[in-house]
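User: I'm putting together notes for a lab meeting next week and I want to include a structural view of one of the chains we've been expressing. I don't have a solved structure, so I'd like a prediction I can at least talk through. The sequence is below, exactly as it appears in our construct file.
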Amino acid sequence: MPKLKETVLEIDLSALEHNYHFLRSKLRPTTKLMGVVKAHGYGSDPLIIAKKLVSLGIDALAVAYVTEGVQLRIAGIKVPILVLHPQATNFDLLIAHHLEPSIYSPKILKAFHQTAKKSTLKDYPIHLKFNTGLNRLGFWESDLDYIAEQMKGTNSIKIKGILSHLAASEDATEKEFTSRQIKAFEKIVNNAEATLGPIPIKHLLNTSGILNYPEAQWNMVRSGIGLYGYGNDAAIDPLLKPVVSLRTIISQLHKIEPNESVGYNRAFRSPGFKTTATLPLGHADGIGRQYGNEKAFVIIHGKKAPIIGNVCMDMLMVDVTDIDCREGDEVTIFGNEQTAEVFAAYANTISYELITGISSRVKRVYK
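Assistant: Thanks for the context. Below is the predicted structure for the 367-residue chain, given as structure tokens.
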């Protein structure tokens, strides 16, 4: 990579390829893999990520909202795209771009069925989402009779898949709960097929489910965070490679004297002679104020530099008193030297929140 001159989010497609093959190695040869590229490709670039996954042989993609799926279709992505949380107001747009809806309630099923009939569709593929304990979205098993009534005598829509979502598959203390979810899904699948006929695709497992409950992979699994380099497990994370790295440069160095303050509200008071470095990124870029006041560290020449004072909108300051550095030197916020999981933990949050929150004004570069 050329010498860094500004704040960038580096997207490593070779790391994505590594993670893809690692996850594939955990599956049966007949199990399909759906890659989740919602939330702007987990904060990276959904089009670049999707195109790379398609080139690797991904079987399907998933997004949260219809507009995300439309963006992929316009870019030329042709594999099946599941919309996990479609809204009725966007059904015409969904159909126009051949996206597959996850239907999660009687109201949404009725609305989509009406739209499909109005559009004179035939056998339009849908997936039925059932609630097995996450209590976020999904039909109840008792809704099967209603679903059967809606499907009776229609050829407008066709059930392609059935799914649910695990709530705590990464948590070793919740194995009993997860096992109950798996058994509940199995019961729902059996009753659904007895009521509605064969359903080609069944998918339950997320990244942590793939790693911890391989016996429940059915014939498709979904992976989001695992593809981006995080396994929600300290033993697994070293086997994956972070896809995104946030890097910046030192804009200016300051020599400050004892009792001088740094930043807004004078939140940092120097206990002695210090050297500080100002970096060109802040809470408008996704590095919130919760990382300030020596809660988090950045990496400069392999050494940890604490963030001091309050994080500003466009800048933050770090203590480099014990680091030999110059203006223009490179700084890593998270990446291989310090993962997003480690950096997020400084603020008692998770890698998902950190990487999906990096502002669009941060330049994306690819390797």
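A couple of points you could mention at the meeting. The domain at 31-228 is CATH 3.20.20.10 (TIM Barrel). The longest strand covers residues 157-163.

User: Perfect, that's what I needed.
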